[in-house]
Design brief:
The protein folds into 2 domains: 167 residues, Bordetella uptake gene, domain 1 (D-Maltodextrin-Binding Protein, domain 2), CATH 3.40.190.150; 122 residues, Periplasmic binding protein-like II (D-Maltodextrin-Binding Protein, domain 2), CATH 3.40.190.10. It has 11 helices and 10 strands. Strands 1, 2, 3, 4, 5, 6, 7, 8, 9 and 10 form a 10-stranded mixed beta sheet that branches. Helix 2 links the parallel strand 1 and strand 2. The protein starts with a helix and ends in a 6-residue tail after the last helix. Belongs to the UPF0065 (bug) family. InterPro entries: BUG, Bug_dom1. Keywords: Signal. This is Tripartite tricarboxylate transporter substrate binding protein.
């Protein structure tokens, strides 16, 4: 019996030693996956891939981006929410799956306020209200007149039911007193392609995706959702300037981990993110895409998520938007 106890004690000590060796100080000791909950392409995916490369160089292990699109970003973020909280499966969280879509979904797979441990912001941007190039409306006033003359016939795309662009569309319909036909797509790129192909008329497109298409004359732009005019598209007024102040909402995206991830791991990742986001090439690439590179502490990111969740919950309640 005494021998058995000694063996058991030795086994416990060995396990503790192994655990210590594989603890936060040794992190990461194997490849890390970053789940991007949207389709490949666009600034969100680009930023994740650039940051993954920079984190790999700093931390000495591969950071591999994996796209898991669908359900307004919830499919990918649910993978993160259910992953082991050890820092080896991370998420590239953004507005829709982190503060919007779960609140307008019946039986959502996770609570965005509880399922994740924020690490750091990576960028902040906006949406631009865009249309197909040949839509006969030169400005927002014309657009409203056109929609009112053809109730329910002007279509507006989104990156999925319950996504932030979908809610923005619903808010626009109510605030401008117009009836638009909502057409959900699997992701933003699919919606933009539908605009370019003339299958849909309008979309709240991320400014990063809208900028090259507008500058090339392939899409029209009407207004941006930032508090101030966007440097990338300074010719377009803000939503407040066109009389739609409730549509003043910024896009954010950044790195999150599953809830319960050890604080030392989060702090190590946050420190690495601060260096990565400060990288000159990353910042210049984001600026060209109409995005502002922005890092944060885990606490600052958590506070931003809390504000966005509260804001969207108020929007959903005020506009009588029910879960689907």
């Amino acid at each position: 019996m005494k021998t058995a106890r000694l063996f058991a004690a030795a086994a416990m000590l060995a396990a503790a030693a192994t655990s210590f060796a594989q603890g936060p100080d040794a992190y990461p000791s194997k490849p890390v996956t970053i789940i991007v909950p949207f389709s490949a392409g666009g600034a969100t995916d680009l930023s994740a891939r650039m940051i993954a490369t920079l984190l790999s160089k700093q931390l000495g292990q591969p950071f591999v981006v994996e796209n898991r699109a669908g359900a307004g970003g919830m499919i990918g973020m649910n993978v993160v929410a259910r992953a082991q909280p050890d820092g080896y499966t991370l998420g590239w969280g953004g507005n829709s799956p982190m503060s919007v879509t779960p609140h307008v979904t019946r039986n959502p797979p996770y609570d965005p306020r509880k399922a994740f441990a924020p690490v750091s912001l990576a960028a902040i941007s906006s949406w631009t209200l865009t249309s197909r190039a040949d839509l006969p409306a030169k400005d927002f006033g014309d657009l409203v007149k056109l929609a009112k003359s053809s109730p329910g016939k002007i279509s507006i795309a989104s990156s999925g039911n319950g996504s932030a662009p979908h809610l923005l569309a619903e808010m626009l319909k109510q605030s401008a007193g117009i009836d638009l036909l909502h057409v959900p797509y699997k992701g933003e790129i699919e919606g933009v392609n539908a605009q370019l192909g003339g299958q849909v008329d309008l979309m709240f497109t991320s400014t990063s995706a809208a900028t090259p298409q507008v500058k090339a004359g392939k899409l029209k732009g009407y207004a941006v959702t930032t508090p101030k005019r966007e440097p990338a598209l300074p010719q377009f007024p803000t939503m407040a300037e066109i009389g739609q102040p409730d549509l003043t909402i910024e896009i954010f995206f950044g790195l999150v981990a599953p809830a319960g991830t050890p604080t030392p791991v989060l702090d190590k990742l946050a420190a690495a993110m601060k260096v990565a986001v400060a990288d000159t090439n990353y910042r210049e690439s984001m600026e060209k895409a109409g995005v502002t590179a922005t890092s944060s502490t885990p606490e600052e990111f958590a506070a931003l998520l809390a504000r966005h969740n509260e804001r969207w919950l108020n929007v959903i309640k005020r506009n009588n938007i029910t879960p689907e």
